[in-house]
Batch of 2 targets.
Target 1
Amino acid sequence: MAEPAYVAIANAYARRIRTGELSPGMQLPSYPEIASEYGVSDIVVRKALGLLQNQGLIRSVRRRGVFVADLHDLTLSPGEPESEPEATFDSESGQGENQEATNAYTRALDELRAMQARHHTEMRQSFSEVKQGVDQINALLRTLIDKA
């Protein structure tokens, strides 16, 4: 089975970073440029760059772009033989899905906590209103009893 496009893109960039073709601090092309180069959507590019960022190979600077991280220990030395094609992300499609599932679970849990807090606040307010109503009824009953 062919690897997903985002894994292939991540592998290609990881290889270029590790061989020193892309040096630390170098800015990567924009999402649309990478998408155009590989014939994929921006979403696929985002997923590929997410893998690279999770591995510490790149860093994103808001409103400036994506840059190769400082990776002195990850580049191949001139005498070091190049290993087989980059395998860093071969199993990432499953891990990426796991990370997405974890992120979705975390978001859902955060939403549930927020809902629980709102519900708790609403319940406290409702109980307060009920208590006020009961106090008013008791006062009315005392008034009626006193007049009787």
Target 2
Amino acid sequence: MHQDPMLFRFTASGLDAESAFTSHVAEDRELRGGPFARRADLTKVGRITVVRDRSALGPVVVGYFTDSAPWPVPYGAPLDEDDAEWLADRLIEDDAPCVRAGGAGALLLETPGPERSWLFFGWSTPLG
């Protein structure tokens, strides 16, 4: 039976991207899905890529807010959730290598506490 790829996106916290993803997958496996609730099979994700490049955000900052970038978007810097969501959408639309089948992109989020939070996104097979 052929299963089409399924988009996933979620946030999880942990010391690093890999541990946050692994913890989320363990919790996700315990959830029971209803007959109409399809979810991505996160156990099929074989690699996590922390996306440090923020260059795609530069034109957005310039285009929407001012004629010149009012603040730098540093390489690897934490992002607020809106910028992270926007960047994840662009990477998915552009078929970036980090989100090709079997992979997940991870963006570090700005968080108030000491624990790091990540936005994960990519394609996987549906949980069957």
